[in-house]
């Protein structure tokens, strides 16, 4: 999500895009092979739309679906493909228009409205996104719907509703790491650092590679004056980055000496030159000298 999104604070997300090479097929003997090869229905028969949505380069997918929608403007599946591809490509403004085209189609579904709301949130159109979700019947209970409802409640500082929506979303997915991270960040913005720490730690148990949750966990601990790294899986580079985050948190809290020590440790730990940490340490030392 997974996953840019929030009105008052950022929601982190991770996205992995792969590439796929499509090889030309051997032409059969006889017949109008050119027409057969360029027919969208024939292409769909090979599952190319699914490949484009799930594995192709985002820009390549956008090009494919743009061309296909131009040739078959009434097909809602191709409109959806274009909208989803635009999201993957980071073209959020264009995606909003594409999803609007989808929901205006006579065969649009509640899932389409939820996806439209998601695109609106990505462009900061919170009120429009909320209106879209309000138009979805309450019986339409999906993970994505409740995740977005939670984010909108957060943006409105409706904390009780946000917690309820986050809890429901967690129960509707087998991969809750992203939404747990979002929930933890919500708690942290409210100053509920202990609760935030628990949610970040839980997110990491579901996805040990989710660095944003690790970084947020360190921030939550630092806000409580806990300047040691928790026991968790991390690479050497991640350890250096987390030490740096902790060091900056300590400095911001007024614990300058502790912060400098953590930043020095981050520099020593990083397997390469850690330019950001070096600059910060120099700035701190210069400030002490001038002071």
UniProtKB/TrEMBL annotation:
<feature type="repeat" description="TPR">
    <location>
        <begin position="177"/>
        <end position="210"/>
    </location>
</feature>
<protein>
    <submittedName>
        <fullName>Flp pilus assembly protein TadD, contains TPR repeats</fullName>
    </submittedName>
</protein>
<dbReference type="Pfam" id="PF14559">
    <property type="entry name" value="TPR_19"/>
</dbReference>
<dbReference type="InterPro" id="IPR011990">
    <property type="entry name" value="TPR-like_helical_dom_sf"/>
</dbReference>
<feature type="signal peptide">
    <location>
        <begin position="1"/>
        <end position="17"/>
    </location>
</feature>
<dbReference type="InterPro" id="IPR019734">
    <property type="entry name" value="TPR_rpt"/>
</dbReference>
<keyword id="KW-0802">TPR repeat</keyword>
<keyword id="KW-0732">Signal</keyword>
């Amino acid at each position: 999500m997974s996953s840019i999104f929030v009105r008052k604070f950022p929601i982190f997300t991770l996205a992995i895009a792969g590439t796929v090479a499509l090889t030309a097929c051997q032409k059969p003997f006889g017949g109008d092979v050119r027409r057969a090869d360029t027919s969208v229905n024939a292409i769909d028969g090979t599952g190319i739309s699914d490949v484009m949505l799930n594995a192709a380069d985002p820009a390549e997918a956008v090009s494919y679906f743009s061309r296909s929608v131009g040739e078959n403007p009434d097909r809602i599946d191709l409109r959806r493909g274009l909208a989803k591809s635009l999201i993957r490509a980071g073209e959020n403004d264009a995606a909003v228009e594409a999803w609007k085209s989808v929901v205006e189609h006579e065969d649009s579904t509640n899932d389409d409205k939820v996806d439209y709301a998601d695109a609106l949130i990505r462009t900061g159109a919170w009120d429009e996104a909320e209106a879209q979700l309000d138009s979805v019947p309450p019986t339409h209970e999906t993970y994505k719907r409740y995740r977005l409802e939670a984010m909108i409640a957060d943006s409105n500082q409706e904390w009780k509703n946000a917690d309820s929506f986050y809890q429901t979303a967690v129960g509707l997915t087998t991969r809750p790491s992203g939404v747990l991270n979002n929930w933890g960040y919500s708690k942290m913005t409210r100053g509920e650092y202990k609760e935030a720490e628990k949610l970040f730690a839980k997110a990491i148990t579901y996805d040990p590679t989710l660095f944003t949750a690790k970084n947020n966990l360190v921030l939550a601990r630092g806000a409580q004056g806990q300047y040691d790294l928790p026991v968790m899986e991390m690479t050497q580079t991640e350890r250096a980055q987390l030490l740096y985050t902790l060091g900056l948190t300590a400095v911001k809290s007024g614990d300058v000496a502790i912060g400098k020590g953590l930043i020095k440790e981050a520099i020593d730990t990083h397997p390469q030159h850690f330019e950001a940490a070096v600059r910060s340490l120099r700035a701190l030392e210069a400030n002490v000298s001038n002071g």
